[in-house]
Amino acid sequence: MSVVTDLLQQVVEGLGSGAVYASLALALVLIHRFTGIVNFAQGELAMLSTYVAWQLVASGMPFWLALPVTLAVSFAGGMLVERLVIRPVQGAPELTVVIVTVGLFIFVNALAGLVWSFTVKDFPQPFPDGGLYLAGVRLDWSTLGMIAVVAVVMGLLYLLFQHTSIGLVMRAVAGNPASARLSGIRVGRVLMLGWGLAATVGAVSGVLVAPVLFLEPNMMGGVLVYAFAAATLGGFDSPVGAVVGGLFVGVAETLTGAYVDVIGADLKVGVPLVIILAVLLVRPQGLFGRAAVERA
Amino acid sequence: MRKTTAWRAAAVAAAALLTATACGTQRGHDDQDTAAGGACKGQQTTGITDKTITLGGIYPLSGPASAYGTISKGVAAYFRYVDDKGGIDGRKVRFIVRDDGYQPPKAVEEARRLVEQEKVFAVFQTLGTPSTAAVWDYLNQQKVPQPFVATGASAWGTDAKHPWTIGWQPSYVAEARVYAKYLKEARPKARVAVLYQNDDFGKDLLGGFEKAVAGSGIKVVAKESYEVTDPSVSAQMASLARSRADVLLDVTTPKFGSQALAADARNTRWNPLHIVNNVASSTAVLQPVGFKNVQGVVSATYFKDPADPRWANDPEMKTYTSALHKYAPDADPANQFNAYGWAVASSLHQALDTMKCPTREGLRDAVRHLKDVKVGLLLPGVTMSTGPGDAFPLETMQLMRFKGQRWQLFGKPVDTRKEFGPPAE
């Protein structure tokens, strides 16, 4: 194996983990666009959705039927969470809402452990086994499939944000809920929709990563940190940014782990944190994000 | 170690003196609850009477490591079974189980409650290296025995400052030695890649392996570590694959074990002999990967697998299965952790039987003077032995290879102390 194929193989591995981060970052971006908050429980909700899918498949439902059912359940579940858990603290300082999502994180994690135990579950792989070799570099079908699905979700979100009236409405709600309400927008409904859609995108993420990471209640805990790095890098309001950010974080992490001896595998967990810090210092709105303009 | 020996010599001398002068005094005349009589005068009798013995265990019944929590069910079932047969030397066992959620600070809190409120005779067991390390200073200060902790760190046997604590299962170093010996015979020129968890557990096993192969034709050509917070080990596996090593030593905990086995199976261009360490060798780890993907994987063990039909007619296995059905109906007898609990509890029973004094000191000394003690659920050829300079009860393991749907033992049990000498600190 030459040095170049070696490097390319590492890049492919990086893109594989990057797609995992990007998929969850998309859900983070979505909910941020809709509601203006950062949802720490996003990963855990995705994990819970994945358990729903697992339970359906385990009870005999074919995967391609279980998937839409899971997405529908997640959508409803996300809306319910907004209505029951988030609505009561709506209007409270941002910190309060963030802390509520952290509480939700812990609750959902413990709940999944209680119901499904912490034993590792195998999740059916929707993509075929194996892969193809391109110039000596191995590309797993699962990696390619994951990147394709992430790209499709990204495209759909972009269309939703930029080319639909609901996109406009939700920007209004995120930007100024009071004015939005005065101009006749039903803010509560929009927020519920935002949580529902984010939970659905999160469910896609969970179902995509579960065959690779193996399903257990802490599956998304590690992913969340990287997804935050991805969203920060790309900009918290840009789906394209989330995906580019995710892929970049994945590749950067893999390459530094493999080639920078000082960092090695021991310190590569620090890579996303360095990225978050650097972005916040240099370009707080992220690569693709728009800087928030506030009236003085 | 020297300190302990001196202490013990003094104790023996004092005991001899006391027997000469105060023979016949069955009970200490001071506080009956904290002192024994006769040769055992002055020793602690907290938590033990002629009728009962109180033990406290701290297990992760909740949280990320809660799969291990079921060990406490195997232990409790054993004690209830023994109680119904008359108890341990006539004493009924009160076994109090506490949950630490695998969090060291919580373990400390629970240990204090067990010692100060429940007044336990001994803390049997603490589970996991972090929780055990968190409570052993306290228990040793309080002079409370902490026998047979459920972790394989070699520190429990090499440390001289904590005479009240002792391990039970073969240490990670002993396990590493078994793999080293196997490779020396089967692949004397092996080039080994190692995936390990970046903590005491991973480093203990890796260090033991590197020492055991030093000077042989076996070379460790690549090492990659991961953090328990990492989402996956696939990047590490890709790096290891670059080494083209012909053996992969996989030192992981369950989820990462599944990930590493799956990554190995996915990569059809790299097919090393995959050695997965005992911690990640349960069927619960292999099954999600798919049995067809883990054929020929090698590991090591020391007790009888309740799922292995080879032991179906084993007398102790039969007792275990029927007792578990009776006393712990919600626990699955085929689960290896329940069998582990049963085996370690019956080991403690045997150690309690050899106590010279029914005191905390008596138990502390008994677990350090075990001589070829046979335990029903341990593999044939595996016995408990300790003595001066040897605080490792079990040091023998046997290799196993995955075939079909279960592990199959192969080779002879390897006594690592005989092969490699005592583990160094």
Terminal-residue CA separation of chain A: 60 Å
Q: Would you report the number of β strands of chain A?
A: 2
The structural class of chain A is mainly alpha
Secondary-structure element series of chain A:
HHHHEEHHHHHHHH
Sequence stretches where pLDDT stays below 50 over 5 or more residues of chain A: none
Portion in strands of chain A: under 5%
Largest sheet, strands/sense/barrel of chain B: 4 strands, parallel
Question: In CATH, what is the class of chain A?
Answer: Mainly Alpha
- In CATH, the architecture of the largest domain in chain B is 3-Layer(aba) Sandwich
What is the CATH first-level class name of the largest domain in chain B? Alpha Beta
How much of the sequence of chain B is in beta strands?
15-25%
The number of helical elements of chain A comes to 12
Kindly report the average pLDDT value of chain B.
89
Task: Give me the Rg of chain B, rounded.
Answer: 22 Å
Largest sheet of chain A: 2 strands, antiparallel
Signal peptide (chain B): 1-24
Domain Leucine-binding protein (chain B): 52-403
InterPro entries (chain B): Leu-bd (IPR028081), Peripla_BP_I (IPR028082)
Organism (chain B): Streptomyces filipinensis
Tell me briefly what this model is.
The complex is a heterodimer of chains A (296) and B (425). Chain A is mainly α.
